[in-house]
Amino acid sequence: MLFHARMNFFRLLCIPEKIIPRSFRKFNIRANVSTKLITFDATNTLLHFREPVGMQYSLIAAHYGVSLDSNIVNSNFVAAFKFFNETLPNFGLNSSVGNWEAWWTHVVKTTLRKSGAECEEKVLSLIADELLQYYSTEKPWVVQQGTESFFLKIRGSGIVVGCISNFDPRLVLILNRLGLRSLFDFILTSYEVGETKPHPRIFSEALRASGIYALEAGNAMHVGDNVNLDYHGAKDAGWDAVLFRKPDQPRTKSMASIPKEDIVTTFDQLFDRIR
């Protein structure tokens, strides 16, 4: 608060920012920055899995006497998730499957069966229930390095911060248990909105949820790890966009048309991008 008071004092005196003492401006976001809203994807942007999904599935299955190869489980999980995401999108919303819990139960059981699980149906159900509970906690998740320091830097800048993610309703609970919920002005999941990224509706809903009167898409920025869902989804909605990648991830063909300045690997780089 004191920092921002001093910055406002300098501006009231019409003192150019370049001659303001560095100690007062090193974390400052320019008053004329066009970005009024920043939204973040969750998985693989803010959060990462602590261990591969196949490993955790195998560990919990072992509690019920079901022995599986974690690498095989991981491959089958990816295939099962892809299949159900395409045939029953958005975690089964508005489909015959019923709800997101039933959708995930189908994913888990299919993964385990394809991986060689030989057990009764009720055992598969018990494993699925425990996995659903486990992934609702903070235990399987790791927060991206630099997340909290980034939010501290932009706090007080006037920029509204949101999270929009293709996720089931557990996201708010997970962020809360990780101590991140208070960092966001709003959180929207695809399940809540009724559309998944890259559909423009989830981006327009974010503009509304920001609470900024007459906010234009051009004053909003989305940050995420997926080229199509996050970067192009936001761009097609008229937003600014930044692709967040791991430092060791190679540049792929799908990234060929993305300017280098729109790709970051750390939150420090992202902070420099919005100043």
TrEMBL record:
<protein>
    <recommendedName>
        <fullName>Haloacid dehalogenase-like hydrolase domain-containing protein 3</fullName>
    </recommendedName>
</protein>
<dbReference type="InterPro" id="IPR023214">
    <property type="entry name" value="HAD_sf"/>
</dbReference>
<dbReference type="InterPro" id="IPR036412">
    <property type="entry name" value="HAD-like_sf"/>
</dbReference>
<dbReference type="Pfam" id="PF00702">
    <property type="entry name" value="Hydrolase"/>
</dbReference>
<dbReference type="GO" id="GO:0005634">
    <property type="term" value="C:nucleus"/>
</dbReference>
<dbReference type="InterPro" id="IPR051828">
    <property type="entry name" value="HAD-like_hydrolase_domain"/>
</dbReference>
<dbReference type="InterPro" id="IPR006439">
    <property type="entry name" value="HAD-SF_hydro_IA"/>
</dbReference>
<dbReference type="InterPro" id="IPR011949">
    <property type="entry name" value="HAD-SF_hydro_IA_REG-2-like"/>
</dbReference>
<dbReference type="InterPro" id="IPR044924">
    <property type="entry name" value="HAD-SF_hydro_IA_REG-2-like_cap"/>
</dbReference>
